[in-house]
Design goal:
Layout: E1 17-28, H1 40-52, E2 60-61, E3 76-77, E4 80-86, H2 91-103, E5 111-117, E6 120-123, H3 128-142
Antiparallel strand pairs: 1-4, 1-5, 2-4, 3-4, 5-6
Helix pairs in contact: 1-2
């Protein structure tokens, strides 16, 4: 299996990479703003935002967006960013970081973000019930 850590990313408290998930971008969901397809810069921005987030970045690893991943490595496929994470990743912190990323962007660039885990798809919104469902999605797999 390919080494998915780099020296900067190996300071995680757990070290065990056990959770994999994908984040998918789709057109904007802002009323009155024409939808646009996600662009590679949108994915780079999201990946960078999550890497720099103090609660997410030290637990989740994604390959650089510009590179085509080798078999067995995480990376970008179309409009999807793929991650692996250790057991220290807090799913609620992940959702909050994604919402903060969306809110930091101009309205016409606020993409819909969907988390995909083991074939289950949940659109990320600020609704507490959605956050609870995503947290359960991560917790169900750990048992």
């Amino acid at each position: 299996m390919a080494d998915l850590t780099s020296p900067a990313e190996s300071d995680s408290t757990s070290g065990a990479l056990v959770v994999s998930f994908r984040l998918e971008l789709a057109g904007t969901d802002q009323p009155g703003i024409p939808a646009r397809d996600p662009e590679p810069d949108d994915l780079r921005s999201l990946r960078s935002w999550l890497r720099d987030d103090s609660h997410v970045g030290r637990h989740a690893i994604a390959q650089p967006v510009d590179e085509v991943p080798d078999p067995g490595q995480m990376g970008i496929v179309g409009d999807v960013v793929q991650f692996v994470a250790d057991t220290g990743l807090d799913a609620a912190a992940l959702v909050i970081a994604i919402l903060a990323w969306r809110d930091s962007r101009p309205a016409n660039l606020q993409q819909k973000v969907t988390i995909i885990r083991n074939g289950k798809r949940l659109e990320i919104t600020g609704d507490p019930a959605t956050i609870d469902r995503i947290v359960r999605l991560f917790e169900d797999e750990e048992e």
